Amino acid sequence: xxxxxxxxxxxxxxxxxxxxxxxxxxxxxxxxGKLIGLLGPSGCGKSTTLYMISGLLKxxxxxxxxxDDDVTTVPPEERGIGLVFQNxxxxxxxxxxxxxxxxxxxxxxxxxxxxxxxxxxxxxxxIGELMDRKPAQLSGGQQQxxxxxxxLVKKPRVLxxxxxxxxxxxxxxxxxxxxxxxxxxxxxxxxxxVTHDQEEAxxxxxxxxxxxxxxxxxxGSPQGVYDDPINEFTARFLGTPPINMFDGxxxxxxxxxxxxxxxxxxxxxxxxxxxxxxxxFKVLKTGSLRVEVEFVETIGRDTTLIIxxxxxxxxxFRAIVEADQKIxxxxxxxxxxxxxxxxxxxAATGERI
Amino acid sequence: MLEDKHxxxxxxxxxxxxxLLIIFTFYPIFNAFFLAFLRDFNYLxxxxxxxxxxxxxxxxxxxxNFRDALTNTLIITFVSVPIAVIIALLVSVWLNxxxxxxxxxxxxxxxxxxxxxxxxxMAFAFLFNRNFGLVNTMLGWIGFSPINWVGLRATWGMxxxxxxVFTTWSSLAFRIMVFLSGLQNIDKQYYDAARVDSTRRxxxxxxxxxxxxxxxxxxxxxxxxxxxxxTYTEVIGMFGERLGPPGNDRAMITMVAxxxxxxxxxxxxxxxxxAAAAAIVLFGITLFFTLVNMQVSKKRxxx
Amino acid sequence: MAMSTxxxxxxxxxxxxxxxxxxxxxxxxxxxxxxFVIIPFYWMIMTAIKEEADVFVSPPILWVNPLNWQFxxxxxxxxxxxxxxxxxxxxxxxxxxxxxxxxxxxxxxxAFARLNFVGRDILFMALIATMMIPGEMFVITNFLTVVELGxxxxxxxxxxxxxxxxxxxxxxxxxxxxxxxxxQIPNELYYAAKVDGTKDLQYLWKIMVPIxxxxxxxxxxxxxxxxxxAYIWPRxxxxxxxFRLVSNGLRNAFDDALGVTAYNEQMAAALLxxxxxxxxxxxxxxxxxxGVSRSGIKG
Lengths: 353, 303, 299
Fold this sequence. Notes:
The complex is a heterotrimer. Chain B is mainly α. Chain B is about 70% helix and about 0% strand. Chain B has a domain at about 65-185 and about 210-300: MetI-like (MetI-like fold, Orthogonal Bundle). Chain B has twelve helices and no strands. In chain B, helix 2 (about 55-60) crosses helix 12, helix 7 (about 155-185) crosses helix 9 (about 200-230) and helix 9 runs antiparallel to helix 12 (about 270-300). The relative contact order of chain B is 0.14. Chain C starts with a helix and ends with a helix. Classes of the chains: A alpha+beta, B mainly alpha, C mainly alpha. Chains in contact: A-B, A-C, B-C. The interface between A and B is medium-sized, with 24 and 19 residues.
């Protein structure tokens, strides 16, 4: 089921009549049968968007389509959605089975059939043996699966997950995100999840939608957005360690960083912000950028160099290079820059040039 | 240092409360059992004739009012408690689901909590007045002829109905307050989740609200039972110290009244022992129903 | 496309109608219940301001023109019995017992919340268990005790006050309630004070009591309300009419042996007793609700 958001806007009004625009004229089409990550820092309006799609929040303006159905004014119970809450909202007084059966009972599914469906979905998410436990007797990861099973059991048109991994510890998080990916593949349900963790979104999404201050910044495949950020915000938001940003300029077809020419550009002369991914550097004797290494961290295959920022006094930047290069801290080295790992942004607007 | 036991210091802090509790709470409990087993105790002379196991309880059970007192107490408890708990539950759920005027309704509903049982009992007696009361007037609007609720030689049945209305009215406020605060502590997400799953309202109430509120319902039921077994001041409020409609004195007598009746005759030989025995019987009944209650609730209460 | 939009539109309309219907029913039910709650108060007030002749009219007069309100009923009611004296007694008794209760409970709650001593948990459980025992078990012996203490025979105002207040100068429930509040104050505060060389007593009064003030206010109100409503014990231990409290005076002053009661004066007196409580409730509602709902949650 394709989800289409047209000009979707949500304005919250405080008691003092102050207005906050949580979501601002959002136009997105979410393709059918895909796993989509809605990504952005806290307060960017991503959860508000999710709750508007669920119907629990009413949009101030705009419309929401599921396929060809305009569901903008349809109450949540008639939208055919499954929603997994951030802290799962499992009914504490019911067993896992009762929790999963609950939506089916609402739909008056015959008992035997409902039991079978509940068991099937429980098996699918891998909690088939825990049916008689109460939520309090389960680990966070298991509770998460129960919540997903409960959302999936009624075969929703759309599955929505609000920060699905945020309540799990690091190890479980890795495991669970694979699990979500697998469940989504096996069911083929259009799934939208909200997260502030770019790594999480990048690792499992078919597509990501990056939001900031209620506005959509960019939409595309994770790698596509990473490799081709539309502005400084998305460039900075994606990637660990984050992209390095420098003030520089274009002069005579060359990109200058602190006097060194690090690349070519056919733009006219101007001041620019230069973004270079940490993996975008190469240590080369012939490199034009002379810098001083402050620390060296070698972890397995990669070496991270923490290098004194030549432009800003007292700041550093990071470069990731192959570990077989022996580099001593405190020494000067020469770097060259891979052109496809470098992005230029307008110094004033932050837009990609 | 901090884990050290501070025995002496602790007892210094506890002393004022403990002295009072020992004299006016712990000692009286033991003494009640002691008194209840004394034969022919006369407290004015401080004498008694040895011990007896059943005699004082015999006085209580053979008291001509005992059966009335027990019947009344049980009726008051088993009629008014369930009705009041259910009404309070419904009203608090309604109240919790509105936004506008919630504060106003809340204030109104809580008013009975702060009323004086005597004052409001007298007001109810006049509300149920046969000729000049509002209740018969309102019943008249829908075609009833005036009923003698609490007037001269009013029947036990009518007096009981009027009294039940009064006790239910006055006990609702506390229950609504407790339920409402319980409802406000239920995470709103459960309701969002239920809504997304297309749960009908009645089912939400039965399958989510009631179970999640069950500790509170349990607490209210237990305290209501205990409180109800102790009904006495309300009877005085509505009927005065004759404990019944004029000409039908003591028709509304309760278990607690037996204790005070005996206590009023404190100078008479054996009266205090009878009072103690009556109090123990009351305690026994309360304890019995509390335990039954706990047993019944064990399976149904979710913590 | 156009079709589906229309269907949805219809749905919305139907939904809105359902919502409005539900809200109407809800508010109607609540309004009916509010009327049920208010009627006794309304009837009390209306009766209290009627002329005596108007009280004995059938069917009764439901509304009295404000120009004809008989405030003299209040004066007459006050003449029936020494109500001013009863109120004075009630205020004194409630002040003494409240101050006493606060002091004893603050100390005891501190010991249970902060100090470590042998048998603390057992003692605490024992106290909680006694809360279940009906007060009638204590009354008999307590009556004998106050007689023994010489507070009943040849009673003076002082001994009457002692008899009415001392047995109620502490309360297990309030100790429990206050202990819960004290326990919520972080340990670090206590340790910090210890490091700074603060004595326990100083810490209790300078830090814990101010932090727990809302709870203490709640206890004060509940305790004062309890005294205002007390009927049985004061009746039992006061030997002279002028030592009694409002509830006693109220019930006895209008119990006409002939069965003809001056209802308007009776209701005027009842209203006088009720008004201070309502006033306290409306001004300090927050604290009362807090106390009550807490007791429910912890129960």
